[in-house]
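pinned: reference chain
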Amino acid sequence: LQHYFIQSNLRQNMIENTYERKRRSISEKLSAIFINFAKNYTRMMDRYAPSFEIDEEFLKHSLAEVHHYQDHHDIKESLYHTYHPASREIPRDPMTRDPMSRELLSTRDSAPPPPAPRAGSEPRSMLSPRPVTPPRPPRTVAETTATTPDPNETDCCAELERSGVLFQVDPASELVYSNAPPKDKGDSMHSNIKGGSVDALIAEATIYRDTEFVQTVVFTHSTFITTDEILKKCILRYRHFARSNEKIAENCVKLFSDILGNTWMYLTKPMIDLANEFIQLLFEDKLTDQAVTLQSTLFSQFQYCKEHKCEVTYSPATSISSDNLSWTFLLKVKPRDVALQMTQIDFEKFSKIKLCEILTYVKVPSETTSPNMCAFVTHFNSVSFWASSLILRRDSKDDRQRVYRRLLSVMEHLIKLNNFSSAFALFAALVKTAVKRVVSLSSKQEKKLDASQTLMDSSESYKSLRSALKSATPPLIAYLGLCVADLTFLIHGNPDTLESGEVNFTKRHLTYTFMNVVRTSQAVPYNIAPRDDIICFLNNFNDHMTEEEMWQRSEQIKPRKRRN
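pinned: its structure tokens
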């Protein structure tokens, strides 16, 4: 019984905080919850109290909380007379205006009398009524934070909060525009949004479903609110408009599903609990299709996490020993065929990257939070080291020249295939000082290398490469180093909030724009048939030397001239 009352006391504290912020905003349903609890608790006490040891001091302290509700005298009187059955006279207080409370109070007299105490047991002492105390002083910020309700109790929160921008149809008043807000709502209006409160941005994302605006909120929400909180706010907004505005309610479900579908690495138990609660709520509201869709999204996150947390390598269908394929195999196959197989391997890894991983990688590179992103970066370095090692391991100068020419041709075909990632990796290998000093290039090879160098030139912030990426049509594999550099400058060089304190949405929109280049590249896959012999020869690019070993081998081939 004490545990049962503790749970009620927590709810009382939560309601008390709400009263101090917004008086007289409590709903009739919540009043009924308290009165019903008081009646049920009293009946349990009358039946079971003689056989249990009840801490009377604790009970007095808990019941004293009732008298803090000065603005709701009807609740105080109802609870008092419910806990004191001997007091049958209910004062006719003019403040008792709640129709549901009057109805509940009228049914109290018809309740059956409590059973007589068992023989030999002492009658339970009645708690004397406590005089009405003056209202408590306002709580400090620290006290308010300490008594914040449990995030999982969304039912209580939905009943307590019925005002604020989250429950407004149009949150335009809480948004900051770079120009005057447009009169006609449409896709173009969101380009003028400069910032706004968190609730206003969430509410705006559930009104008109502008794809770019919604995706910006979905993929960058972690920079201004936790995923648990934004999912919770979607449920609260849905509950408010489930009966009054079907379109907004439907968009709340879509936003919830979009956010849940892009949080696979951060799928925590609170998120699962919120998703299950929302699914059950949709079934109760007879929205079967949306409930099934959301349930499928939740299930797919488990499957995706299970498949992508393990290391996946592109292996041949048949067993071909790589020992039987020497470096001369590279000279026998066509450079385009090698470029095609490299592109297929790259896209297998590139397509697994989630946009949320890129944002996390820019902040703190970690294999735990960004496994696919880290795996692709490692793969990029492996391709570059593999190409350099393939040249440096040749003993004769002619063999090194032949391998260098073939890799140069492969790089040209990679550029034609819009595989800018491996093309950049091979270019970095061919211009590496340890490699270039041990080969002699013809004038024709110099021209080819200069043409590639013009594309990969870092001057003017990779102007040529940006132009090539912009003009290329999918399928393509973007160079992630460029995207990471842009995001690093944007995130660390711009404030998160405006001067007025609202969320800097312009920064989030630019962040999404940079990341969307990767998403566009992933949309169209390559249709390349695998060749087991080439895949086996490449051996997932694992056979390479370290940076230090490359320099040692380069100096072994061509020792440095020592000064006297």
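why pinned: The longest strand covers residues 193-196. Strands lie at 175-177, 193-196, 503-504.
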